[in-house]
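In the design runs reported in the main text, the only information available to the sequence generator was the tokenized backbone. The following block is the verbatim input for one such run; it is reproduced so that readers can re-run the procedure and compare outputs position by position.
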């Protein structure tokens, strides 16, 4: 992971006792925000502490961890997230709790070796000399400064490096499990921000580029990004009021750490202990005010790139209560960002694919065609879920000679662009076959033969209903589809019994048809399985729910469809997402014509 750093340090030399004292004073200053003496420079002390080669940490009078520098985490192998804000008894230094209480009680220094009965335990390397010194203010002991007095030996250093490598892999494995659990961009970004706080930073924001924006580094100047997620520790929630909240847009000022990261395509590390440096690195005036209120002193802006394309930006920040980002941490965060960027890109690609499929399906599922005036039609389509998972549900109407209209309801198996494309194939083929003026069961037989010859086509269920008002007759035939519902004034909803043949595309044929009297005022309802089916529920129970509905038989067909969908389909902001897409088609004949009214018959 390449990165640019605003830290001008060129290395470190062994520390003497004066260095240790100054580092301890800086620890107290950084944690409490006060000054040690009137002549001390807070910025100088913070910088000395950040660069001090000795491990320094600070406990308050309740023995809770308030501060630790980078050298302390390096020497002990502990992470900031394992210590900050926690009582010492709940950490690896639990064995030293008794010693620390005595330091608070009598104000005397203590010194112990790690690994012993009174020292820190695993994963802290054994044999390190650690000094506990009381921190006094106005003659009272207000905390304990912990100083690591020597470095681990070669064997201990090797163990520490192995432990750090294991911790690094464990963190990345945990990130893989927790980030990218869905194919939703905002959810993935929220998972990334939540994972990084407080493990890696106290404030994290995740921004994504617009889908149609330039995706190469150096071509993002002046571009507005979408704020997908923001997260911070509990202590910063009242102090930080980001100008751009999730769902809003954000634009980075030229020269800021974020703008430089997007322009160069590499991570930018900026230590900002002074207000001037913070102003240079902040995205803009509003963010600068929020950063000042939070007391941020270290920023890390990491581009989110996947498959050679920029997809967004991850920004992390720490306060003076934590050490600044180290190059090692920047490399780890870079690996985390790369994995997260792949998940974000996968979600964007999925959303783009579903958008294409949805637009295709909407274009195909136009309002019912041009039926004869002797029949009234109305139709609806609802995609499944909150992410517009497009299925293969479709309907069609075909105007035939002698006042007849063919109604079609179909459901291609599967979801996505492929299902929508196969739906288009079924519709166009059906129009061609219906133009041959065949009876419904022979239309299905011919359609099955044509589709079965295409090895790549998916099977589909289909229901045909031929309305013939001139003969007062419905003629119906089914290829594995659910039965239609007949809604008449003063009668319960009736599910028509129709012989069911195999789905289309199987090449098995064997379709039958049945006739039913067509009466004025009666409405025939065709639908797909998404309207009635429920997971872990028998289909007979689902159909019985439809049959039990008391639906408005008179009035507008749109009102009838509203009533059906309200009763059976999830609606409203708090309703669960639909498990499958839904298509419904309602047809009602006009005034009754003179002619025969035959009973139901079955034709082969």
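Verbatim output:
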């Amino acid at each position: 992971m390449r990165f640019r750093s605003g830290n001008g340090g060129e290395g470190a030399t062994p520390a003497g006792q004066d260095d240790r004292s100054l580092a301890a004073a800086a620890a107290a200053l950084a944690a409490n925000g006060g000054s040690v003496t009137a002549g001390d420079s807070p910025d100088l002390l913070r910088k000395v502490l950040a660069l001090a080669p000795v491990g320094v940490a600070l406990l308050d009078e309740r023995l809770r961890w308030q501060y630790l520098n980078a050298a302390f985490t390096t020497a002990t192998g502990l992470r900031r997230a394992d210590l900050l804000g926690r009582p010492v008894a709940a950490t690896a230094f639990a064995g030293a709790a008794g010693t620390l209480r005595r330091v608070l009680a009598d104000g005397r220094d203590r010194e112990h070796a790690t690994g012993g009965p009174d020292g820190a335990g695993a994963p802290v390397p054994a044999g390190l000399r650690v000094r506990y010194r009381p921190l006094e203010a106005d003659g009272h002991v207000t905390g304990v400064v912990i100083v690591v007095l020597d470095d681990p030996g070669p064997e201990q250093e090797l163990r520490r490096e192995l432990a750090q490598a294991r911790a690094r892999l464990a963190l990345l494995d945990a990130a893989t499990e927790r980030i990218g659990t869905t194919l939703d961009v905002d959810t993935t970004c929220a998972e990334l921000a939540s994972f990084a706080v407080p493990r890696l930073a106290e404030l994290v924001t995740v921004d994504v580029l617009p889908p149609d924006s330039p995706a190469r580094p150096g071509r993002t100047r002046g571009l507005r990004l979408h704020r997908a997620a923001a997260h911070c520790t509990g202590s910063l929630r009242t102090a930080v009021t980001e100008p751009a909240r999730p769902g809003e847009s954000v634009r980075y000022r030229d020269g800021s750490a974020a703008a430089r990261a997007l322009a160069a395509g590499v991570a930018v590390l900026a230590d900002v202990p002074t207000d001037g440096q913070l102003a240079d690195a902040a995205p803009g005036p509003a963010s600068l005010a929020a950063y000042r209120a939070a007391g941020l002193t270290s920023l890390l802006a990491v581009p989110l790139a996947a498959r050679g394309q920029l997809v967004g930006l991850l920004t992390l920040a720490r306060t003076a209560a934590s050490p600044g980002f180290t190059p090692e941490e920047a490399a780890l965060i870079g690996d985390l960002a790369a994995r997260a960027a792949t998940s974000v890109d996968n979600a964007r690609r999925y959303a783009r694919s579903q958008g294409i499929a949805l637009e295709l399906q909407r274009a195909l599922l136009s309002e019912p065609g041009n039926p004869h005036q002797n029949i009234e039609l109305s139709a609806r389509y609802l995609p499944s879920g909150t992410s517009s998972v497009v299925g293969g549900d479709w309907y069609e109407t075909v105007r035939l000679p002698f006042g007849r209209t063919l109604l079609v309801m179909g459901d291609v198996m599967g979801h996505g662009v492929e299902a929508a494309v196969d739906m288009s194939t079924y519709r166009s083929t059906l129009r061609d076959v219906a133009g041959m003026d065949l009876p419904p069961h022979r239309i299905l037989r011919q359609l099955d033969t044509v589709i079965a010859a295409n090895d790549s086509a998916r099977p589909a269920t289909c229901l045909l209903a031929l309305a013939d008002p001139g003969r007062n007759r419905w003629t119906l035939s089914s290829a594995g589809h659910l039965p239609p519902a007949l809604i008449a004034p003063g009668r319960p909803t009736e599910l028509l019994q129709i012989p069911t043949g195999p789905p289309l595309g199987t090449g098995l044929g064997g379709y039958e048809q049945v006739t039913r009297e067509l009466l004025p005022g009666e409405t025939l309802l065709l639908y797909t399985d998404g309207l009635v089916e429920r997971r872990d529920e028998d289909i007979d129970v689902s159909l019985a729910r439809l049959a039990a509905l008391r639906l408005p038989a008179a009035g507008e067909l749109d009102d009838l469809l509203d009533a059906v969908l309200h009763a059976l389909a999830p609606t409203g902001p708090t309703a669960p997402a639909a498990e499958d897409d839904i298509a419904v088609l309602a047809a009602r004949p006009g005034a009754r014509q003179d002619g025969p009214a035959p009973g139901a018959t079955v034709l082969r």
